[in-house]
């Protein structure tokens, strides 16, 4: 449906690539999230797909037709791509209905279509209002209605929830994706928030320095990250360096890099009364002194000094932590990456 082949873009004549040899294949109806930190190339990718920039190399095809390559460039308005950005970009002097009509002015039944879109996003009665008379969440739903009105082949959502506070963000994200699922439209969802990506995407693509470093089903990315960077994007991760290998008596392959997710540590709240059997069930274990406890709502952050002298920070839900404890983990929870990553 969307096929991107070896796409590259540099803004400084090939010295640095904002996007470097990116290849993507999206099936119709897929929701694919693009996740990457600031400067990883997300916006550049979106601008190239939308036709707001020209690629240096590579090609983009939509529904089997090339829309950008060294030989062809289809103008943005001809690409059948709907865009929703962080800032709602509604025209302030037009009503909500007029905002939606703007992109479908040539359509025969445009008024009917606009009303259908308002119904779809749950704003049936607000067509005559102006954008400033709506809440942020409602404005973003109008932006979605406007993007969907021309029946785009592809919908791109570029950080659409970044302006909203945490509660509203979660609620609107769920609402927006419920609406999107009803339409069956193919979606590219750009976000730096891994929770957003995990909760709605079929597939997640990780961009780092302009390159796709992993593209996988959401569940796989958490369980089998390709690199330490990907692992850390999806939750607190501790690298098991040489010192920690010594502390936990777990020598590991020297040619690889290893890590463990914070929640995989097993904290035994006391060093005396702890059941020795449960300690035996842990493959690698050491004694530790608790240097500092920080209560963070429903979890507690522990700064530990391990028996080896090494320091380690872990989280626990247990509020009954003594000053001296055991901490351990199991071998099958160790993540292993090749060293070049
Ligand atoms: N118009 C431009 N001129 C020069 N360099 C640019 C331009 N646009 C982007 N870049 C550079 O290209 C790289 C990728 O930028 P891009 O905006 O695509 O990243 P991003 O992942 O969208 O970041 P953010 O999340 O901060 O928006 C960065 O190093 C950026 O400085």
UniProtKB/TrEMBL annotation:
Keywords, sorted A to Z: ATP-binding, Cell membrane, Ion transport, Iron, Iron transport, Membrane, Nucleotide-binding, Transport
Matching Gene3D superfamilies: P-loop containing nucleotide triphosphate hydrolases
Organism: Psychroflexus halocasei
Signal peptide positions on this chain: none
MF terms (GO), sorted A to Z: ABC-type ferric iron transporter activity; ATP binding; ATP hydrolysis activity
GO biological process: quaternary ammonium group transport
Ranges for domain ABC transporter: 2-234
UniProt xrefs under Pfam families: ABC_tran
CDD domains documented for this protein: ABC_Carb_Solutes_like
Protein name, per record: Iron(III) transport system ATP-binding protein
PANTHER family assigned to the protein according to its UniProt record, in alphabetical order: SPERMIDINE/PUTRESCINE IMPORT ATP-BINDING PROTEIN POTA, SPERMIDINE_PUTRESCINE IMPORT ATP-BINDING PROTEIN POTA
Single GO cellular component term: membrane
Cited InterPro entries: AAA+_ATPase (IPR003593), ABC_SmlMolc_Importer (IPR050093), ABC_transporter-like_ATP-bd (IPR003439), ABC_transporter-like_CS (IPR017871), ABC_transpr_FbpC (IPR015853), P-loop_NTPase (IPR027417)
